[in-house]
Write a structure and sequence with these properties.
Number of strands: 11
Helix content: under 10%
Shape: globular
Radius of gyration: 15 Å
Structural class: mainly beta
Order of helices and strands: EEEHEEEEEEEE
Mean pLDDT: 79
Number of helices: 1
Low-confidence stretches: 1-23
Strand order of the largest sheet: 4-5-6-7-8-9-10-11
Largest sheet: 8 strands, antiparallel, barrel
Length: about 150
């Protein structure tokens, strides 16, 4: 299903439209309770620097641990909501894949949020289809590059 642009609300909102996660973009989206496909609503009041974060991105922390970022809603204040999913990487003691929701803030070109484990995650655009990221937890910083899937 192709995204469709509608004028309407003051937020960009990715709305689920079908009951299966099998075709939802993002390598790890299957670990989140998501629906297939979404529609983007944008009244044109959200700055591009904020709106560009709405979407689905895949990458690997340190080139090893899969992660998927799904930003399904942003508003004109920079508030962002979505899902953060991760894969397994036994060498790091991560024995099961998972997904958690987040609410973050976009400011100065960066999306920032804190995960339940206390990790601070930051994403920023390197190009229109590629974002960089850092994951800071217990004094250690891990980096990733993610590519836009939708």
């Amino acid at each position: 299903m192709k995204p469709t642009l509608f004028a309407g609300a003051l937020t960009i909102c990715l709305v689920a439209v079908a009951p299966s996660t099998s075709a939802f973009p993002g390598k790890l989206s299957k670990h989140c309770n998501l629906q297939e496909g979404f529609v983007i609503y944008d009244a044109g009041t959200i700055k591009k620097e904020i709106a560009q974060f709405a979407g689905v991105f895949d990458g690997k922390w340190a080139g090893k641990l899969d992660n998927t970022l799904i930003v399904w809603e942003v508003d004109k204040t920079g508030k962002a909501s979505g899902f953060y999913a991760w894969g397994k990487y036994r060498k790091w003691g991560i024995n099961s894949a998972g997904c958690t929701g987040f609410v973050g803030q976009i400011a100065d070109g960066k999306l920032k949020f804190e995960l339940r484990n206390g990790a601070k995650v930051t994403y920023w655009f390197e190009s229109a289809k590629k974002i960089k990221a850092t994951y800071v937890h217990r004094g250690r910083t891990t980096s990733a590059t993610l590519k836009r899937k939708r």
